[in-house]
Amino acid sequence: MTVALTHARLLTGRSLRTLSRQPAYLLFTLVQPMIWLLLFGQLFRRVAELPGFGGGNYLDYLTPGVVIMTAMMSAGWSGTSIVQDMERGAMDRTLTSPIRRSAMVTAGLTHQALVTLAQSLIMFATGLLAGARYPGGGAGLLVVLACAILIAVVFAALSNAIALVVHQQEALIAVSQFLVLPLAFLSSIMMAPALMPDWVARATRFNPVDWAAVASREALVATPDWGIVLDRMALLSALAILMTWLAARAYRFYQRSL
To answer: d(Cα 42, Cα 46) in Å, to the nearest integer?
Structure first.
């Protein structure tokens, strides 16, 4: 275990050094969510006045959802670094080294979790500057960050697994784009379930993006229902474990395909 953790730490450091040479990447991944938050927050602010929405400030409702969406969208690109390593031959050299396979999975997900943490803090601060207010305070913010990291682990592990199977940037991007927007719109990120068509509202119950958005939003109110929060976070944690196992299996599949 100590050896695996050491390997994971070294590989995570390598990924972070690579990111530090391209800091524009971190900002680039925030451009579209910023547009969604600031533009949609103003464009649809009257939505909060509709019967069934619950009233309040629409930006209060939107900001936690956009934080989750940012984590999902960014994590969906995680597998591109694996494809790049394959193309450069770095992946094969790493697999022939004594580095533990579990460390490779852990390092990739840890890197994405750290990126997600930075992105989530920036997006949440942007929402506050734009006028969002949350009586849930620090405890609520910690739940939002935890949910963002969990959803990032889910999609990063899935992205890594797909990359190890398809070996191509184009195929990985196509799968990522196929999943991201449908999952975002089949959730309560931008619209209260009471105002959705019945079939969409039912679909949200099985959507991990909605689990994260609901838990985040609930934790930020003055008197949260912690049962709802913990239930959604437990589902996210179970799915994150499953996707991590899938990514580990994908490494074995890739080795057998060489």
So the answer is: 8
Q: What is the pLDDT of residues 194-205, one digit of tens each?
A: 888 999 999 999
Closest CA to 175 of 250, 75, 244, 107: 75
CA distance 47 to 56: 10
The pLDDT mean for the chain works out to 86
CA-based nearest residue to 194, from 61, 105, 72: 61
- Residue whose pair of structure tokens reads 């050299």 in the numeric block: 93
How large is the angle between the packed helices 169-185 and 79-88, nearest 10 degrees?
A: 180
E strand intervals along 88-146: none
Tokens of 3: 């050896």
* C-alpha of 133 from chain center: 23
- Determine contact, residues 65/187, Cβ cutoff 8 Å: yes
φ, ψ for residue 23 (rounded to 5)? -65, -20
* Angle formed by the axes of helices 137-166 and 101-130, nearest 10°: 130
